Design the sequence.
């Protein structure tokens, strides 16, 4: 798995705590630095040149990059890694950047999955979030992507927005049902430190959603997904059968990945590595990697936390033998009250258990 981070945005959304900046961007300089970092990491996965299975461009807004710059990155990756047999090649996109020409260009570069940051189909809500598009642009972008030949389209939505009612959320989901997309990622709005949204709430300009409404919206989402033929495969992710994100599913199974770009994280199976969230430093070639070695306990906790958030659950084969009695014992009360169940290969949350995944994780991690 390879992840490429593009930290540029047209403007900053109120809730956003990702490493991304609006304004004037040195895109050429950034792509130069990415190409150098790619070369430097050619041996990341070891000496054997096994084919990579997924490639993911995230951000920020990768679709702000002109096609020739995207092409340079893909070519450079192809020089240093075997990306000739990718099962999934995803790009995150914002609706306002997409045109038929640009989408055709993405297809020519072999992107076969596009993840569109819609967030809401309500113009008032989009305005509150300081998004750069309106609802009609989002619908048009999805249709354009379909016309360009994308048959694996993911849409991101946010619920728990200020002033968003359960009815308005249901209307948003109904519209999704008319769009023939394959994956839906729905996140509850979180108020992150240092964001514009945090300041708006602190100064009383915006009222956060109450917990009851957020829970009702999540329940409405799960009911809608089930009625509309979307399978839930992670707490926030739903797909048409056979269209679960391969790349993200591998993150949740703790498979190794290489992250390239400012603020990108990597994982080699035992250690995590990240570059500082500083684009200027990155452009100047200062990658300043920080490595964190995961202890046996860290690895156990990660496996449990990530597994609990997926319908697949915690794979027994990924739990070291000496942790198994402890895990079984801590899950026992949840199996008795119907929040968890055991199969021959997994401990997995039931539908009800998924709603409580984070609470269960907090109680059982070491
Ligand atoms: S487009 Fe995405 S990355 Fe950029 S500011 Fe908005 S939420 Fe953040």
Sequence:
């Amino acid at each position: 798995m390879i992840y490429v981070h593009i930290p540029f945005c047209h403007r900053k959304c109120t809730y956003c705590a990702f490493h991304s900046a609006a304004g004037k961007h040195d895109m050429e300089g950034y792509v130069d630095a990415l190409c150098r970092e790619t070369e430097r990491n050619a041996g990341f996965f070891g000496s054997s040149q096994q084919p990579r299975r997924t490639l993911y461009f995230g951000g920020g807004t990768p679709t702000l990059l002109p096609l020739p710059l995207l092409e340079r990155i893909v070519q450079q990756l192809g020089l240093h890694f075997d990306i000739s047999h990718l099962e999934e090649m995803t790009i995150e996109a914002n609706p306002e950047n997409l045109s038929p020409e640009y989408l055709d260009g993405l297809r020519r570069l072999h992107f076969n999955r596009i993840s569109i940051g819609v967030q809401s189909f309500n113009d008032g809500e989009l305005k509150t979030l300081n998004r750069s598009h309106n609802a009609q642009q989002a619908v048009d972008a999805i249709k354009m992507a379909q016309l360009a030949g994308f048959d694996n389209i993911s849409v991101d939505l946010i619920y728990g927005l200020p002033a968003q009612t359960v009815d308005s959320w249901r209307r948003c989901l109904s519209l999704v049902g008319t769009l023939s997309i394959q994956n839906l990622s729905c996140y509850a709005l979180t108020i992150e430190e240092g964001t514009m949204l945090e300041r708006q709430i602190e100064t009383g300009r915006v009222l956060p959603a109450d917990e009851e409404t957020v829970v009702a919206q999540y329940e409405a989402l799960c009911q809608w997904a089930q009625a509309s033929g979307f399978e839930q495969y992670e707490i926030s992710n739903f797909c048409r059968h056979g269209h679960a994100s391969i790349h993200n599913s591998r993150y949740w199974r703790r498979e190794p990945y290489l992250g390239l770009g400012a603020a990108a994280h990597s994982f080699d199976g035992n250690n995590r590595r990240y570059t500082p969230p500083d684009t200027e430093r990155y452009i100047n070639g200062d990658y300043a990697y920080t490595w964190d070695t995961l202890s046996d306990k860290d690895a156990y906790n990660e496996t449990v936390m990530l597994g609990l958030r997926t319908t697949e659950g915690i794979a027994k084969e990924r739990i070291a033998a000496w942790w198994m009695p402890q895990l079984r014992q801590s899950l026992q009360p949840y199996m008795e009250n119907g929040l968890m169940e055991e199969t021959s290969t997994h401990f997995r949350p039931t539908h009800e258990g998924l709603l409580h995944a984070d609470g269960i994780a907090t109680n059982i991690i070491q």
User: Anything to note?
Assistant: The chain has two domains: 2-251, 295-366.
